[in-house]
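WP5 quarterly update. Target: DUF4878 domain-containing protein. Source organism: Streptosporangium jomthongense. Length: 243 aa.
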Amino acid sequence: MAHPPPQYGRPQRGETGRGVAAILTMVIGVLIAATIALVMVLNPVSTPKDTFPTQEAERSESSARQAAQLALDTYSSGSYGDFWDLWSTQSQTVIKREDYVRLFQLCPPLVQDGQFTISSVAVEGDHATVQATGPGDQSEFGFVFEGGEWRYTPPAQQETDYRTKTVDQLAQERRTAGGCGRASDPSAAPSATPSSSPSYGAPTDPSATPSYGSPADPSAVPSYVPSTAPDPSSVPTSFLMQG
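Structure tokens (predicted):
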């Protein structure tokens, strides 16, 4: 029995199309995968978990307490320019930095280097209210969350005074009310040298030897009481923190 000879020639048309389609599918898949990988490398997706806890931590009671303690310590140390730097942007517009520093040169606080102890902090959104005990009494201080940090805001009445009065007027008012301490400028202190200092040189005329009489009646000698700063306990609380 004879076998038919094998047939040689072009493959069938359907088999060729299926092969080309498979190759094209593989190429397209590789291109899509490469494109997705490139996009993820150049523009990584940030999930809310990456940012949300950080924002909450910045607005937390703990961060407000730290900012308040820094501001109060800066004020109590006498660094009034640095303290002004910790104010909110809006508060800094009511008085210039150099004017604020000059105000304390004209009228130093009654109690200097007095420490503040924070007793409570209440946070509501972008605002925080801090209760702190300083030299004399407990006071309330306001802070606002601005630019990613808590910044100090003076009371409304103080901002009004800064906006409507000059530094000299403010210093005079505080001085009249007994709210100014002793000036640290040596040139402002009264001279302790008496105007009629005795001369201890040898007399030129021997006959002009001074006579030493009996001392005057002690009851007639005026009593001089050294001047002291006012009692801080009798000063209104508003003068204990004049910023």
